[in-house]
């Protein structure tokens, strides 16, 4: 693995390609994941998924190949693993996920699975080949499933129209399950039929119906843009790269883009909801400003994957807060360059500039994960924070509130204001 790939995966996303593929396949109900690799890789991927899916432990198993397997192959270990699954579980399908080193062996996974005589279909995916992060693993898994969609393609039927697929969503992201529900709620309220959300909870049969939709919506380019292009080439399906909807005005712009490409009948209902929510937030903001002054931060740092970082940056600076300096640390390469940003750094590419952000920090709002806040703690820098991505080690959230959409706008507004107020109270205490 290249040094930059390792740093990006382990220090920014904290996950590898095997974990991304595991998260995608785990989100397909009644699926079983057989990790063809060492226990470390198995526990790493399974534990990450288990943080949002308590049943993950009952749907993961590991082959634990012997030390010479990289030379002689993993057939013996894989057959033993499949036999264990057959004897103890009744999944509807099994996904064999080769870890990065086993991916280099070149075993005939399909042939080995045939000899196991399993009562359910088995699918294989190579996760990374000693490279890759969560996004690349998710992409590998999605493209692998699209191969099955091609095999099972049917003539297009008369679905409820307008119908869309949502590509690039995952419950494993921070507030991921809640964001999926909010995006679905907004689109269905506007009049769209949600055909399938691969990797976001849709059943296998629903995913096989991907070509039946009128339009593919790509919510995260790094997870699903390649898959959308594949579906366009194979089935002639149009797609829109729309990103994630953050903030009230941002959500309305997002919906307008979709509605322009594929009109719906009830977008006015979302506009009315937006007016109601915005009036409430403005009222609350006015009350707090009269006591504590405007929602101002000398500096704002946003560190997150591209869709989160870009969308939240525009919402925070365009709708709620003001700042003298807004810096974005993207965790993946992206062409996104939001106008709200004063400076943009990309992990693995601009690491020296990212280091300077922390070393020169003089105080302000950090919107990211525990990785950023712990670094500032070690440097003894002042800050207030609002977590928007994983890992989040220093708080617990047990509500069903999303980060995106209308409900997410109120939640983010609340958290950012409370971050400011916590900072104000800290100044009051230190002055006593």
From TrEMBL:
CDD domains assigned: Oxidoreductase_nitrogenase
InterPro entries reported in the protein's UniProt record: Nase/OxRdtase_comp1 (IPR000510), NifE-like (IPR049939)
GO function term, MF aspect, one: oxidoreductase activity
SUPFAM superfamilies in alphabetical order: Helical backbone' metal receptor
Top-level division of the source organism's lineage: Bacteria
Signal sequence interval, chain numbering: none
Any Pfam family: Oxidored_nitro
PANTHER family per UniProt: NITROGENASE IRON-MOLYBDENUM COFACTOR BIOSYNTHESIS PROTEIN NIFE
Protein name per UniProt: Nitrogenase molybdenum-cofactor synthesis protein NifE
Source taxonomy: Bacteria, Bacillati, Bacillota, Negativicutes, Acidaminococcales
């Amino acid at each position: 693995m290249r040094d930059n790939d390792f740093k990006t995966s382990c220090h920014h996303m904290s996950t590898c390609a095997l974990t991304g593929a595991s998260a995608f396949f785990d989100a397909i109900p009644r699926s079983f994941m057989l990790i063809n690799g060492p226990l470390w890789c198995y526990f790493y991927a399974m534990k990450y998924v288990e943080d949002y899916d308590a049943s993950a432990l009952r749907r993961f198993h590991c082959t634990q190949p012997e030390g010479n397997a990289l030379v002689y192959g993993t057939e013996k270990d894989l057959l033993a693993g499949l036999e264990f699954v057959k004897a103890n579980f009744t999944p509807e399908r099994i996904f064999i996920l080769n870890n990065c080193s086993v991916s280099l062996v070149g075993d005939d996974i399909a042939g080995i699975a045939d000899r196991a005589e399993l009562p359910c279909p088995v699918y294989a995916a190579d996760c990374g080949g000693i490279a890759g992060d969560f996004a690349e693993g998710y992409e590998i898994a999605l493209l692998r499933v699209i191969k099955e969609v091609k095999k099972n393609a049917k003539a297009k039927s008369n679905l409820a129209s307008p119908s869309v697929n949502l590509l690039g969503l995952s419950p494993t992201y921070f507030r991921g399950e809640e964001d999926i529900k909010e995006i679905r709620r907004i689109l269905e309220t506007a009049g769209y039929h949600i055909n399938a959300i691969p990797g976001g909870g849709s059943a296998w049969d629903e995913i096989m119906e991907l070509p039946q939709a009128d339009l593919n919506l790509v919510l995260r380019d790094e997870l699903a843009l390649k898959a959308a292009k594949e579906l366009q080439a194979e089935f002639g399906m149009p797609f829109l790269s729309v990103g994630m909807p953050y903030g009230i005005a941002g959500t309305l712009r997002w919906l307008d883009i979709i509605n322009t490409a594929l009109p719906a009948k009830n977008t006015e209902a979302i506009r009315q909801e937006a007016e109601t929510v915005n009036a409430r937030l403005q009222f609350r903001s006015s009350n707090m400003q009269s006591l504590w002054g405007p929602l101002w931060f000398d500096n704002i740092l946003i560190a997150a994957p591209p869709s989160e970082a870009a969308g939240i940056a525009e919402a925070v600076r365009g709708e709620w807060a003001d700042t003298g300096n807004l810096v974005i640390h993207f965790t993946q390469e992206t062409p996104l360059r939001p106008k709200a940003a004063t400076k943009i750094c990309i992990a693995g590419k601009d690491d020296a500039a990212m280091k300077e952000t922390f070393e020169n920090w003089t105080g302000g709002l950090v919107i990211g994960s525990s990785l950023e806040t712990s670094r500032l703690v070690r440097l003894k820098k002042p800050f207030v924070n609002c977590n928007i991505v994983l890992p989040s080690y220093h708080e617990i959230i047990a509500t069903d509130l999303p980060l995106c959409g209308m409900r997410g706008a109120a939640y983010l507004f609340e958290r950012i204001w409370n971050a400011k107020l916590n900072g104000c109270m800290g100044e009051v205490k230190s002055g006593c």
